[in-house]
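Hi F.,

I've been meaning to write this up properly since the lab meeting, where we talked about keeping a consistent format for the predictions we share between groups. The idea is simple: the sequence comes first, exactly as it goes in, then the structure tokens exactly as they come out, then a line or two of notes. No screenshots and no reformatting. I'm using this chain as the first example so we have something concrete to point to.
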Amino acid sequence: MADSDEYVQSHLVTWADVHRDSKILVRTLLDLGPWQGIVALTRGGLVPAAIISREMDIRVVDTLCVSTYDGQNRGDVRILKIPLAASEAKGKGWLLIDDLVDTGTTAHAALEILPKAHFTTVYAKPKGRAHVDTHVHDVDQDTWVFFPWDTEPQYVQPLAGAVGI
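Output, unedited:
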């Protein structure tokens, strides 16, 4: 993780959680449209964007490719790809979707490119919350959220058999 003292809690999100929570977003977003299309913030926004596009029958889906993490360590914001159609409209009428807003660094960079987009996330932490128009769950700032596309099940040694215990 970024700094060992920074994250004291963890929250494991399952595929079922992502699907359910993305559909919860849809129920809100349907009443706020119509929408020209969806811009997924890569990579975390890809899965929620796919679910939301299906449920809302939106077939125009693009990406805003931003890199701010190297593994679990934060780095500089790098814009790798800008969505042409959405950026021409400054995001007006477009949904900008991400899995999580943490410190707001990525959100701030994305909203500089698409300032009129409706920014929606599944999870929001306090430091980034001001950038989000709609979200499903609040998460404490000191919690690392583990998404299913970043993890895989594996065997863990029982505590009773661990070295030093």
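Notes:
The two ends are 24 Å apart (CA to CA).
The mean pLDDT is 90.

If this format works for you, I'll send the rest the same way.

G.
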